[in-house]
Design goal:
The complex is a heterodimer of chains A (270) and B (246). Chain A is mostly helical. In chain A, helix 4 crosses helix 7 and helix 4 packs across helix 9. The two termini of chain A are 20 Å apart. Chain B is of the alpha/beta class and 246 residues long. Chain B folds into 2 domains: 168 residues, Rossmann fold, CATH 3.40.50.300; 65 residues, no CATH class. Chain B has a 6-stranded mixed β-sheet with strand order 6-7-8-3-9-10, sandwiched between helices. In chain B, helix 4 crosses helix 5 and helix 7 crosses helix 8. Chain B starts with a strand and ends with a helix. The chains are: A mainly alpha (270), B alpha/beta (246). At the A-B interface, helix 8 and helix 9 of A face helix 3 of B.
Chain lengths: 270, 246
């Protein structure tokens, strides 16, 4: 007992009881708003920069409200979500089976290791010229860039999960007469479901980051286009409101992935 | 079950693990394969289960040659290795699911869970169970496809003494009730005396050194405290020691 007593308690200051998490989130968001507001004040008071004063929180929020109520936010986000969703779907359809094969077959792992690590380190945006040449439509090129960005975290997370599968589970399933399909559906996929979703979560983070610059390409819809358009028309409140929309959607998608990971996680926290 | 001329070498090892194994096991018999580690007893059991192909010889169960795992002969391992993302009844139903059975699965699972006294745990996650209970689920999972032969690879060695003893008695009772042929591998002579009708001794490099040692005990005498048990244990221990040193 004395040993436990010797360990200093983690300090939570101030003590906010069961609302601690919520309060701390508010403190963090409040801090961010204050920094944004101070930046806006500094810009507005600078004779060289006052033209950009609409970046400040108040004009941004006012514009955001208009964008939400007129449905402009949905019009901007719809095409972007479609492109990210399509690119992610292709990345999952290719990445998960590839990850399982790499995790299960040592020789394939050795063959693919160097080429895949090499490809992974190339910024997805450096494929932009090739994507533009290779695809008939701008949409096709953007989906390709998102797929290229998203596939690696999914492949590597799935493969790592498959390698950690307890060999005894495979042996038990084989002993009970499992076919390869049974092995996949009752052992491998449930065992690595959280790894796959962790990969998808990472991939979604990268894909969402790649989306905006990818939409600077010829398309006339989506969040990246909206940012470029707002800059060209000098509507800085619309530009910063679009940035807020990008952040909020990204955060929401990440939260959804975290929830899925939580639901699929079969390990008991002790 | 007829084992004829089975021999096996692992590619990496320098000599055969098993050679010239001949063995006939009658239906419903409980046989213990006893030997020290490295005697090849576990390899032999894997061959009997169809999980390893022998380098030479063949195993036949009821006339069928064993070349792969089957719901007719099922092995139970040292660790329960249950699937932690499933409930007790889902784990128990696995073998039935793999054999494509779709009707009567629920009833069969209920039957085997009641056989291992886990009915009330059917919907619990297996991670909430104790080690002994988990091994009971593994037993239920092995029994569900109604195998003719159950092969046990030291399945109780990770359990505490009291749980182990209860499991040993229960498994023998269940096997006898269902008319199962039970083949268990152990390095513990007392486990063989508690559970088996016949003891088969293996020695590293020499294969089977005695295969007809009958365990002459009534079910009621299969208790660690009974005098008859102690006498029988002493007799088998003496045979084992002599065999190992010869």
């Amino acid at each position: 007992m004395s040993l436990i007593a010797d360990i200093p308690k983690t300090r939570n200051f101030p003590n906010m009881g069961k609302y601690r998490g919520l309060m701390n989130a508010f403190i963090g968001m409040g801090g961010l708003l204050v920094i944004w507001w101070l930046g806006g004040r500094a810009v507005a008071n600078d004779p060289d920069m006052f033209a950009f004063a609409d970046f400040a929180p108040a004009p941004t929020m006012a514009r955001l409200w208009v964008m939400v109520t007129t449905g402009e936010v949905l019009d901007m986000a719809g095409p972007s979500l479609y492109r990210v969703g399509y690119g992610m779907l292709i990345a999952v359809v290719i990445g998960v089976p590839l990850g399982i094969l790499i995790g299960r077959i040592a020789q394939l792992r050795e063959i693919t290791n160097i080429p895949f690590q090499f490809l992974r380190m190339i910024s997805p945006l450096s494929w932009m010229p090739i994507a533009v040449m290779g695809f008939d439509t701008w949409d096709g090129a953007i989906v390709f860039l998102i797929t290229v960005a998203a596939i690696w975290p999914i492949v590597f997370a799935t493969a790592a999960g498959v390698r950690r599968i307890d060999p005894a589970w495979i042996k038990v399933a084989r002993n009970l007469g499992a076919s390869p399909l049974h092995m996949l559906t009752t052992v491998i996929l449930p065992a690595v479901a959280t790894d796959i979703f962790t990969g998808i979560r990472l991939a979604l983070g990268v894909a969402w980051v790649v989306l905006v610059p990818a939409e600077y390409l010829g398309v006339t819809s989506g969040l990246g286009y909206a940012i470029n358009d707002a800059r060209d028309t000098l509507e800085y409140d619309r530009l910063s409101a679009t940035v807020v929309v990008i952040g909020v959607i990204g955060f929401a998608l990440d939260t959804l992935c975290q929830k899925a990971i939580g639901r699929l996680n079969w390990t008991r926290s002790t | 079950m007829i084992v004829s001329g089975v021999a096996h070498s692992y590619v990496a090892s320098d000599g055969p693990v098993l050679s010239g194994i001949d063995l006939t096991i009658r239906p419903g018999e409980v046989v213990a394969l006893i030997g020290r580690s490295g005697s090849g007893k576990s390899t032999l059991l894997h061959i009997l289960a169809g999980l390893i192909q022998p380098s030479e010889g063949a195993v036949r169960i009821g006339g069928t040659r064993v070349t792969k795992p089957s719901p007719r002969w099922i092995m139970m391992f040292q660790a329960p290795s249950l699937f932690p993302w499933m409930t007790v009844s889902q784990n128990a139903a696995l073998g039935l699911r793999y054999s494509g059975q779709s009707t009567g699965v629920e009833d069969r699972v209920a039957d085997v869970l009641s056989l291992v006294a886990l009915t009330e745990f059917a919907d619990r996650n297996v991670q909430d169970l104790s080690g002994g209970q988990q091994q009971r689920v593994a037993l239920a999972r092995s029994l569900a496809p109604s195998p003719e032969v159950l092969l046990l690879d030291e399945p109780f060695s990770a359990l505490d003494m009291f749980t182990r003893q209860a499991m040993q008695q229960d498994v023998r009772a269940i096997a006898k009730r269902l008319g199962l042929t039970l083949i268990l591998v152990t390095h513990d002579v007392s486990e063989a005396v508690l559970m088996a009708d016949r003891a088969v001794f293996l020695k590293s490099g020499a294969g089977i050194i005695a295969d007809d040692t009958t365990v002459d005990l009534a079910d009621a005498e299969r208790e660690l405290s009974s005098t008859a048990f102690k006498t029988e244990l002493g007799r088998l221990n003496a045979i084992y020691t002599t065999m190992q040193s010869s």
